[in-house]
């Protein structure tokens, strides 16, 4: 592929932006809308590749879904209304589709085969398969039944109490979805809280779910009622513009209608600790999710340590936080983030490779990175590793490099944010 020159000629980022719908919430709206009784309408749906995979999967399972850009209407089939697909289900690059669907399909009374793209086929599925098998699921596949392609022979499931071994909302959600089909009450115990969109949305669909301390329990065999979902803007997408405004001189940016669910906004806590000027305003609640506006100004930042309970609250933001850290005075240490190694690519290796090429002082560790700032970034030829969040981080880096950056591919941004460059151009001055 011919390298693409990134040349935005930006002096500052200024203006107002609204974010496309949240990816995690868009997936869950399609899933729960499809198994609820009645017609669900989803507004500000994210029409990006990953969420469209989930939508297509439910069409293959017999659900009528009409998508008109950002609005989706789902003719819910009820908890027992999905039908056996007549072809393998394709999950593309989407880890969320894969993990959540394994949970759902395990309890349905039919046979399914599922597969994904090259990246998804490398990613671990045993983290969901293990608890699902404890519930009685019958799942077979490659690499001792741990990786896609997989075959699921739907079974009656029994409820379990499961203590999470890794911090993963995808695993938690897969168990809760399987729990909907199981006899009795299924409980998930989390050591560290992860994003809770599944729990909030189940309640919004009228589901009976108990959350106390770090335990979430769901009653099996219950019906869900169709509803309307307004998907908040995606905080993980906003993160790239927040970073750009912080590190590019003379910037001031307002980002409207962003999801501010506390299980997702660890990056804000980190940035405030680093000295960032970011104000939150107009907080409200839509379908159980906190939403608000952010105003961001260029800031002098200092390095910090990011670890422990913070990690699940900012896991997808770590590539862009690493870029910010190159522009902060002193050392930033990222620890306990070994999960980054099993994302769309090994994001520890990818971030260290890209930022080193650009001239940063950054070192890879087993479970994170150590970054020494502040460094001038030069430019050069880099790879996005086929990873949407790497590509967007590299574009933001190109706003501050002395020389141009050449990147191998930008099409991967279609996974979560097809309009990223269009939106960036709105605020570049
Ligand atoms: C997601 C959970 C996180 C996150 C991913 C989306 C979700 O993954 O990284 O982008 O929608 O549940 P893990 O559950 O693997 O941590």
TrEMBL record:
Q: Look at the named UniProt entry and state the broad enzyme category this protein falls under.
A: transferase
Q: Which GO terms describe its cellular component?
A: cytoplasm
Query: Can you say where in the cell this protein is located?
Result: Cytoplasm
Catalytic residues (UniProt): 316 (proton acceptor)
Keywords of the record? Amino-acid biosynthesis, Aromatic amino acid biosynthesis, Cytoplasm, Transferase
Pfam families referenced in this protein's UniProt entry, alphabetically: EPSP_synthase
Instruction: Name the EC number(s).
Output: 2.5.1.19
Pathway membership, UniProt: Metabolic intermediate biosynthesis; chorismate biosynthesis; chorismate from D-erythrose 4-phosphate and phosphoenolpyruvate: step 6/7
Q: Where does 3-phosphoshikimate bind?
A: 23-24, 28, 168, 170, 316, 343
Task: Give the catalytic activity.
Answer: 3-phosphoshikimate + phosphoenolpyruvate = 5-O-(1-carboxyvinyl)-3-phosphoshikimate + phosphate
Q: Where is the Enolpyruvate transferase domain?
A: 12-424
| An example Gene Ontology biological process | chorismate biosynthetic process
Q: A single Gene Ontology molecular function, please?
A: 3-phosphoshikimate 1-carboxyvinyltransferase activity
Q: What does this protein do?
A: Catalyzes the transfer of the enolpyruvyl moiety of phosphoenolpyruvate (PEP) to the 5-hydroxyl of shikimate-3-phosphate (S3P) to produce enolpyruvyl shikimate-3-phosphate and inorganic phosphate.
Q: Which family does it belong to?
A: Belongs to the EPSP synthase family.
UniProt xrefs under NCBIfam families: aroA (TIGR01356)
Report quaternary structure and partners: Monomer.
Under which name does UniProt file this protein?
A: 3-phosphoshikimate 1-carboxyvinyltransferase
Supply the source organism for this entry.
Cerasibacillus quisquiliarum
């Amino acid at each position: 592929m011919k390298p693409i020159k990134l040349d935005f000629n930006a002096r500052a980022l200024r203006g107002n932006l609204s974010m496309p719908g949240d990816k995690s919430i868009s997936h869950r709206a399609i899933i729960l809308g499809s198994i609820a009784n009645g017609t669900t309408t989803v507004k500000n749906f994210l029409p990006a590749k990953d969420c469209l995979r989930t939508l297509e999967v439910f069409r293959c399972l017999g659900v009528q879904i009409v998508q008109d850009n950002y609005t989706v209407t789902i003719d819910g089939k009820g908890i027992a209304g999905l039908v056996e697909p007549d072809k393998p289900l394709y999950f593309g690059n989407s880890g969320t589709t894969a993990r959540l669907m394994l949970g759902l399909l395990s309890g349905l009374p039919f046979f399914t085969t599922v597969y994904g793209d090259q990246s998804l086929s490398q990613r671990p599925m045993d983290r969901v398969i293990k608890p699902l098998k404890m519930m009685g699921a019958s799942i077979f596949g490659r690499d001792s039944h741990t990786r896609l392609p997989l075959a699921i022979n739907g079974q009656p499931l029994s409820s379990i109490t499961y203590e999470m071994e890794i911090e993963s909302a995808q695993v938690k959600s897969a168990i809760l979805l399987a729990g909907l089909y199981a006899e009795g009450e299924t409980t998930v115990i989390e050591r560290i809280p992860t994003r809770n969109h599944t729990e909030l949305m189940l309640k919004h669909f009228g589901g009976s779910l108990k959350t106390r301390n770090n335990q979430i329990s769901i009653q099996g065999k219950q019906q869900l009622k169709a509803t309307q979902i307004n998907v908040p803007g995606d905080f993980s997408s906003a993160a790239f513009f927040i970073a750009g405004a912080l590190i590019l001189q003379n910037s001031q940016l307002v980002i409207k209608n962003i999801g501010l669910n506390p299980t997702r906004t660890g990056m804000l806590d980190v940035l405030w600790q680093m000295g960032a000027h970011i104000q939150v305003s107009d907080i409200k609640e839509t379908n159980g999710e906190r939403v608000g506006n952010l105003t961001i100004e260029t800031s002098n930042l200092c390095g910090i340590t990011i670890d422990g309970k913070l990690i699940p609250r900012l896991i997808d933001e770590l590539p862009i936080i690493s870029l910010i850290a190159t522009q902060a005075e002193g050392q930033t240490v990222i620890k306990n983030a070994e999960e980054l190694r099993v994302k769309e690519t090994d994001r520890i290796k990818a971030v260290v490779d890209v930022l080193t090429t650009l001239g940063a002082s950054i070192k890879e560790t087993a479970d994170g990175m150590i970054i020494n700032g502040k460094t001038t970034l030069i430019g050069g030829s880099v790879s996005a590793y086929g990873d949407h969040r790497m590509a967007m981080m590299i574009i933001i880096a190109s706003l501050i490099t002395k020389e141009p950056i050449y990147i191998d591919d930008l099409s991967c941004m279609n996974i979560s944010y097809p309009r990223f460059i269009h939106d960036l151009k709105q605020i570049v001055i």
